Amino acid sequence: FLRKEGLSKCGRCKQAFYCNVECQKEDWPMHKLECSAMCAFGQNWNPSETVRLTARILAKQKTHPERTQSEKLLAVREFESHLDKLDNEKRELIQNDIAALHHFYSKHLEYPDNAALVVLFAQVNCNGFTIEDEELSHLGSAIFPDVALMNHSCCPNVIVTYKGTLAEVRAVKEIEPGEEVFTSYIDLLYPTEDRNDRLRDSYFFNCDCRECITKEKDKEKLEIRKLNDPPSAETVRDMIKYARNVIEEFRRAKHYKYILCLTLTPLACELLEICELSLDKMSAVFEDSNVYMLHMMYQAMGVCLYVQDWEGALRYGQKIIRPYSKHYPSYSLNVASMWLKLGRLYVALENRTAGVKALKRAIAIMEVAHGKDHPYISEIKKELEDH
Question: Nearest to residue 18, comparing CAs of 190, 140, 100?
Fold first, then answer.
């Protein structure tokens, strides 16, 4: 899903892409760890992002035993690992990653012992960042030690965005002197119970922010369809349980976008059918603005985009955008990315007026979250000029 047109490619392995030649040269000290292995393994080169990131950390620690520029306040070695809270399943996953690290990098790295590797993988899992583009499509993973110092809140007052290899932190609310800076570790669309389930599973804590204490948005996020014969409390509970199970199935599978990259259209059609069947079942109880409905609509929209069904993607996006704007915090990147998708879809379908309006809404949010000088904004403004 990377836009590879115009990118610089490694001439040896043919698998590493860069934004330009300068970027490629700068990364060579790290890429040389992988280049030979990529050539040797060919199509069988498939370490996870976590394994690749951890290999680079080990290499960096070997060549730079002192603190790096990104460790002015906190060193990677000082990361919290929550080792004592790992269950057997998480420990097994870490051992699988360690095995993959040895398998793919055995000729290129010096390893600490197994116990130290368990700690390091646990630290990376708790402190890593997901890098996404302007439409929130996944690009990769990274660590930014000093940025990792920030605590979580479901009412964040800053947003972390990325410019090349830099993480940038911008305020999206007024922050008084002495007030703590909070970011969000998770997707904030979901109700309080779901958010805290995710926080406990990935970061081992419960959130006690104002949003989690008051639960004031939960009723709207879980809106029930208005019927002459309202569903019983038990029916609602069962449907919420069903929706959570469906969402978990999507999460447990490797993200379907990556699966689709390697498969044919029939699987995409099958995934779309699963989304539509789930939506049909949930719509007997939930309003379209219910977050579980929105989740499945978003998945369906993603499949439509993959198979280039622009009209289908637009229909889902039009249903999503208003509830998104209500459920997410102000200046949410999720809302900006949806306006951006809609704008590009409108333009592709020759509805320039609606496209320009949607793109301008995306820019208004992104200028706060990314900064007015971010390349993404320049790119979108050029799209407006071109159309």
Answer: 140
Cβ-contact 225, 284 below 8 angstroms:
yes
Q: What residues does 177 pair with on adjacent strands?
A: none
Token couple for 43: 């199509």
Please list, in sequence order, all residues whose beta carbon lies within 8 angstroms of the beta carbon of residue 325, skipping any fewer than 6 positions away: 335
Where in the chain are all domains bearing CATH 1.25.40.10?
Answer: 223-386
- The span from the CA of 376 to the CA of 358, in Å, is 15
Model pLDDT for residues 90-108, shown as the tens digit of each residue? 999 999 999 999 999 977 7
Tokens of 303: 């499949």
Q: Residues with Cβ < 8 Å from 336, sequence gap 6 or more?
A: 134, 361, 362, 365, 366, 369
Rounded distance, CA 294 to CA 187, Å? 13
The topology under which CATH files domain 223-386 is: 1.25.40
**Segment holding 51, helix H or strand E:** helix 49-63
Average pLDDT, integer, range 38-43: 89
Q: Contact, 10 vs 36, CB < 8 A?
A: no
Are the C-beta atoms of residues 101 and 47 closer than 8 Å to each other? yes
Give which of 360, 359, 222 is closest to 282, Cα–Cα: 222
